[in-house]
Amino acid sequence: MTTTVPAVGTDADRVADPKAVARKRRVSPLTVLAYALLIIVAITWLAPVLWAALTGLKSNVEAASPGFVIIPEGGLSLQNYADVLQAGLVPRWAFNSLLTATAITVITVAISALAGYALSRMDFPGRKITLAVIVASILIPAQILIVPLFQQMVDFNLLDTYWAIILPQVVAAPMVFILKKFFDAIPVELEEAAMIDGASRMRILLQIVMPLSRPILGAVSIFVFIGAWNNFLWPFIATTDSNIMTLPVGLQTVVSGYGITYAYDMAQAVMAAVPLIIAFLFFQRQIIKGIATSGITGT
Question: The ABC transmembrane type-1 domain covers which part of the protein (predicted)?
Fold first, then answer.
């Protein structure tokens, strides 16, 4: 007895079916509306960025004149960028930003991971109170801590050093809480099996928990780095030495030397943002994945 198997169309046959193609090409009104809203939001977000980039290409007189002109009579020029580069120590400030942001990221991730793991897995006296204090500290505005932190740097004689920029930024309560919540979701059975095999707590953390936490560690690292790179207020307070300044602080001193000049302001803003834009182009997949998995939207 033989069984007749009904013929099944191949993918090429289904794709070649005109009705199927028409159904696929049919776009619902909701889809059109969603795309229209996304385009409006994208234009709204990009407009200030494009305006800043365009203003940086104008002369200061044209930038300060009333009305909005895309291309002025004198044309667009890169002279403002050249002036800012020649007036300051941009390569040195860029190196300082890279050095301090990298150090802050490494130390912050290490401290936050250790603290988050301890709060997630270890039972010690005062654990709940410690966690409550950490969560409550998230609500404290950073500006309130500027005076005591500055006094500490004075007492330690660290002003105008890299450590004065780095140390006050390495404690990040939100990152401790985020990592603690992520560690809570890792099955305890994995660690119990490792303990039966004789693994120490530190070995479990380094060889089991950390590899499983790569997505959240990557997300935390990216957002801490971006926050440290963009931080202007504390590096501006902690140092007056032009050789120690970070890129945002150094560029601001150049602009201040020229007085109120909108074209120079926009040129230095664009120059300060370029490294982060390049970093985003390289790590956009990890950044989007980090936002999706952790809910972090910026620091």
Answer: 94-283
Closest among 252, 270, 247, 273 to 54, alpha carbons compared: 270
Assign domain 90-291 to its CATH superfamily.
Answer: MetI-like (1.10.3720.10)
Residue 209 CA to residue 202 CA, distance in Å, equals 10
Closest CA to 243 of 91, 38, 79: 91
> How many Cα atoms within 13 Å fall on the side-chain side of residue 85?
8
**What tens digit of pLDDT does each residue of 219-260 get?**
888 889 888 988 889 999 998 888 888 888 887 777 665 666
Q: Render pLDDT for 27-37 as a digit per residue (tens, 0 to 9).
A: 788 888 999 99
pLDDT tens digits, residue range 49-67? 888 888 888 887 777 777 7
Could you give the 3-state DSSP secondary structure of residue 295?
coil
Say what the pTM is.
Answer: 0.73
Which alpha helices (H) appear in the chain, and where do they start and end? Answer: 11-16, 18-25, 29-55, 60-64, 79-87, 90-121, 127-137, 146-155, 162-166, 173-184, 188-196, 201-204, 210-212, 214-230, 233-238, 247-258, 262-294
Q: Give the pLDDT of residue 14.
A: 52
Residues 97, 247: Cα–Cα separation, whole Å = 6
Between 13 and 156, the more confident residue is 156
The rounded distance, in Å, linking the Cα atoms of 124 and 142 is 29
Cβ pair 251, 272 in contact under 8 A:
yes
Structure tokens at 100: 């301090």
Please say whether the beta carbons of 92 and 159 come within 8 A: no
Residues 9 and 108: their CA atoms lie apart, in Å, by: 57
As given in the structure block, the two tokens for residue 285 are 């997949």
* Band of pLDDT at residue 270, cut at 50, 70 and 90: confident
